[in-house]
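seq:
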Amino acid sequence: MPMSRAEIATESGARVMNRLCKHWAHKLEVEQGEQESRVVFEEGSCVMRVEPGKLLVAIEALEEESLDRLEGVVDSHLQRMAGDEELAIVWEN
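struct:
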């Protein structure tokens, strides 16, 4: 299964992760914790983990095309949930 990871420098990792999980919980399967959360999409999943000064995000997809799409979806939603904070998100496969 194709996989992508991003290490995002932010002091607001827990807030961003929690906002995103609440946003997605209305239509997706979400397992939300204080330090780690998981979101299940039709074509893959996303795991987010809060560490001091950063948010770690890993996406696993069924195929390469789905991975590219999920990167875009997760990226845009993280940016939206961060509010005024600009997140530098670089995906590594």
